[in-house]
Amino acid sequence: MAQELWDLITEQLSSFSAENASQAFQIGLRENQIEHARLWRAIFRDDRWLDKATNEHKVEPVIISRNLHDYYSSLRSKTQKAKRFYMFLGARDMHGDLRFERELFFECLQPGSYNKATKEFEFESGIILNVEDVIWSPETYSIDPKKLVTYRKKQLESTYSFWRDSRFKFRTLRYPDIIGMGGPARKLKHVSPICGFNFTLPTGTEMQYIFSTPGRTEDLVPSGHKNGRSGICTGWKSYYGV
Q: Per its UniProt entry, which superkingdom is the organism in (predicted)?
């Protein structure tokens, strides 16, 4: 089968289905497809919850981390010591019904242990996954934003992977889509104590995830919204004007 035709076929499949088709037909996948499948397979043993989330609840599951490429490199390395990777699993279910699928969610996860206090699931692979969004669906997530960003090559950035990305790509989030207190953030100090990540979903919809350092943002309110609409904050200020 011609590579172009094979690529067109696998782009219509989920990551796990493309992986299964590759094994069945003995046709290789591109590096980015392998990368995508290995990341999501490290977290989910099967895609039942992912299918229900996307098809019934109409959300777009996403994994966010400082550097997903570093995680994949660690899988390929035979000499690099195992280390922990902090990640966040989001779905941004605006209706809040996805949290009622938590039993199925935990059934579909790879082996590991769940910490109810931190809302984190630690896998044997070394991934620490914050699941606050899919378990509780809050408006703001109680995570120190610095856990999800890095400063490299004079740029503040984070990486993410959508489950339904037809290109199976690890994507990078940078200025001006990382929002700090005073607006678009350029340095690490700008993302504390609150930070917004602005994404364009595979459907083309804009969505913002807001992360705040626990115990430090009780008096903060949005200072403005993108295009005057609620939902996409352009910065924050103190409720008391201080």
A: Eukaryota
Q: Which residues contact 241 (CB under 8 A, 6 or more apart)?
A: none
pLDDT at residue 176 greater than cutoff 70: yes
- The helix/strand/coil state of 102 is helix
If phi > 0 it is left, if psi is from -120 to 50 it is alpha, else beta; for residue 227 that is: left
β-pairing verdict for 220-225 and 233-238: antiparallel
Are 65 and 86 in contact by the 8 Å Cβ rule? The answer is yes
* Domain residue ranges in the chain: 3-238
User: What are the tokens at 115?
Assistant: 């910490």
Band (6; pLDDT cuts 50, 70, 90): low
Give mean pLDDT, residues 54-65.
96
128, 129, 164, 190, 212 from 237: Cα distances, Å: 31, 30, 35, 13, 13
Beta bridge partners of 212: 142, 194
Contact 121, 108 (CB under 8 A): no
Give the Cα separation of 167 and 147 in Å (integer).
Answer: 26
C-alpha pair distances (Å), 242 with each of 33, 75, 103, 166, 191: 49, 47, 44, 46, 19
Q: Locate all alpha helices (DSSP H) within the chain, ordered by sequence.
A: 3-10, 15-25, 31-43, 48-55, 68-76, 102-108, 132-136
pTM score, whole prediction: 0.91
Model confidence at 153, pLDDT cuts 50, 70, 90, reads confident
